[in-house]
Amino acid sequence: MKITPEWLDKWRIWPRMIITLYGIAFYQTTNWFMNLPDPTNAQAGFVSVVVGAGAGFFGIYVNGRNTHTINHTSNSSESSIRTSSSEYDR
């Protein structure tokens, strides 16, 4: 199997990797904050920025364009499904 840009787009490798790395960073940040004996406002603000960035990453991941067409057969009738993350893509 040859790895091409189309293959990477089809399987959404980069968005999945970014959301996974964010999950790891979020987990470590949460553990760090909960283990602080007396957290300051600056430290709480840092955690807030990390959580807010996660909302942005998740929004980009969910609303990313995936316009591949999938053909499948159901009860001997041909149908084509256009997979799109946003209902506004037309």
Structural description of this entry:
It is a single chain. With 90 residues, the chain is an alpha+beta fold. The protein has helices at residues 5-11, 13-34, 41-63, and strands at residues 69-74, 77-82. α2 (13-34) runs antiparallel to α3 (41-63). It has one domain (5-82). The longest helix is centred in the middle third of the chain and has 23 residues, at 41-63. The radius of gyration is 20 Å and the shape is elongated. The chain starts with a helix and ends in an 8-residue tail after the last strand. It is built from three helices and two strands, in the order αααββ. The protein has a two-stranded antiparallel sheet with strand order 1-2.
Give the topology.
Layout: H1 5-11, H2 13-34, H3 41-63, E1 69-74, E2 77-82
Antiparallel strand pairs: 1-2
Helix pairs in contact: 2-3
Estimate the mean pLDDT confidence.
79
Radius of gyration: 20 Å
Which spans of ≥5 residues are poorly predicted at pLDDT below 50?
76-80
As for the number of domains, it is 1
Question: Into which percent range does the helicity of residues fall?
Answer: 55-70%
**Which class best fits the helix and strand makeup?**
alpha+beta
Number of strands: 2
Identify the strand order in the major beta sheet. 1-2
How far do the termini sit from each other? 32 Å
Number of helices: 3
Beta-strand content bin: 5-15%
Largest sheet: 2 strands, antiparallel
